[in-house]
Every structure is written in C-alpha cells, then in structure tokens.
Amino acid sequence: MKKILITGGTVFVSKYLAEYFAQRDNEVFVFNRNTHPQVNGTQLIQGDKNEVCKEFKNHSFDLVIAVNIYTADEMRKLLDGLGEIGDFVFISSSAVYPETTPLPFQETDPTGTNSIWGIYGTNKIAAEQLLLERVPNAYILRPPYFYGKYQNLYREGFVFDCAMQHQPFYLPKDGKMPLQFYHVSDLCKLIDALLLQKPGQHILNVGNKKIVDVNEFVEICYRIVGTELEKIYVDASHSQRSYFPFHDYTYYLDVTKQYEIFPSEIPLEEGLREDFEYYRDHQNEVMKKNAYFEYIEANFKKH
Description:
Blueprint (H helix, E strand, L loop, with lengths): L2 E5 L4 H11 L4 E6 L9 E5 L14 E6 L5 H10 L3 E7 L27 H16 L4 E4 L2 E3 L8 H9 L4 E4 L5 E2 L1 E3 H14 L5 E3 L6 E2 H12 L5 E4 L21 H6 L6 H14 L8 H10 L4
Parallel strand pairs: 1-2, 1-4, 2-3, 4-5, 5-6, 6-11, 7-10, 8-13
Antiparallel strand pairs: 9-12
Helix pairs in contact: 1-5, 2-3, 4-6, 6-8
C-alpha cells in the first residue's frame, strides 16, 4: 500500500489515475476544489492549485502525481505546500517541443516555443524546469493525445457522433496526417513500472508505438459504432479546426525509452471501443462543440 496524492482527481486523466490506484488498495488523496463528484475510495484535500495548500503539511506522501499543473507558479505552490516528498510524477506534454523539430521528437531534443500550442507549451516547459530544480529525481512524462474512459474533450466523441448519426465524415486534405495516442490505462501501468524499476531516465516521451493516420482513426471509430463510412476529403482552403477536432499539425514521439520500461500498449481499436462504450452513456460529461456540425452544414452540404 502506498499513500498517494493526485492533483485533480475528478476529470479524465486524473480521475482515471485516482480510480486505478484506489482500486489497488492504495491510500489515495485527491487535491481539488470539490466542484465535481469524487472518485470512490479516495480522500479529498480541498483546495485551489493557485494557492499554497497548508493541509499538505499534515501528510507525508509516498507518491505525488501532478496532473493538472500547467504553469511554474502552480508547480511552485504545490511544492511549497508539500512536506516530505517521496516519488514524484509530472504529466507534462509533447507541446514542449517546437513544431520545427525533426520527427520523431526525442527526449534529448531542445524544448521551446511551439506555434500550435503557444503559451500552453511554454508554461509546461517552465513547470518542468522548476520541478527538476527542486525535485531532481522526479519523473516527467510527455504524452501525445490521451484517450480512453472519462475522456471529456470532444475528439473521439465527435467522430462517434458522426457515425451514430450516419453522417459522411469530412477528412482534412488526404487524411494522411499522423495521429499518436496514449491510453490512460497504459499511463497508469507505466507509472507502476517506473516506481518498481526506478530507471535513470527521468524525462520520458510516452505514447503508442503504432502511429495511425486520420483515415485509419476514423475508419476504426465508424467500425466500432457499426456504421458504414463515407469519406469526403476537404481541401486546405477550409481551416481544419472548423470541422475536425485535431489541429493541422504533423508530429509524433519516439517512445523507445518508454518501451524499454513498459513494453506494451492497448491496441487502439480495443481502447477506442472502451472509449465509445463510456461515451455513449455519458455524453453529458463531454464538452461538445456544435460549431463543427454548423460549419459542415453551412459549407459542405448541398441545400
């Protein structure tokens, strides 16, 4: 049994992590503002990540998993509040790599401004740097697109909706833009492996080794729903984000070092099937964007 602190604990990645570790007989604490239901089996430390939490001083954690920390100031306040720290894992982002970096991105590549992600990426860089200054043995994980149960962003859900409504799907350009995913369950298992093995590599790209393109991703989603797919390709004169839930941005990560620690991944179709089964019954938990459908209706459909 470990005493674990997870920042967040109520939405998508942090919620999945809290549930995973609580179900394995750990003493799991979640730190959030208590504006959402808490995961069964967890204990709440109520507070705001923008303030130093004095209540942390009453605890000594074996493991801290910082999920919803996006800036150096938030990281500083978290660390200032904590007492004795055991292991520390920070969920950072692949947005720390400039988009001009040769593919695939490697952990040894310089970090810097990414014009697609903007301040989100540079803030994550600053948070990473502060953490390593204060907790040199911390592990920093840089993922691509997370997916799985509890997904709250309207990415897979948009494709599922199109399939459930028996709509054709409008793909950007030739549909060959690569997408790299990482299932939240694989993230949990990797953290288990890190704690067991304590590798010397403290910054890790994480993600599926198998890369798919947009064509294959949409085909899988429609197959899961059970709807025949009609593809319609859209030229670059239309802004991709007006009708499609992923940025017009080609990138993928070298995850060789991750695979040396945890050499496994949930097959994408299996993970997306779980994603769909949850989405179908919990659509109210997803931040839907009707603007996608409105743009398609106004620009692509014949009236």
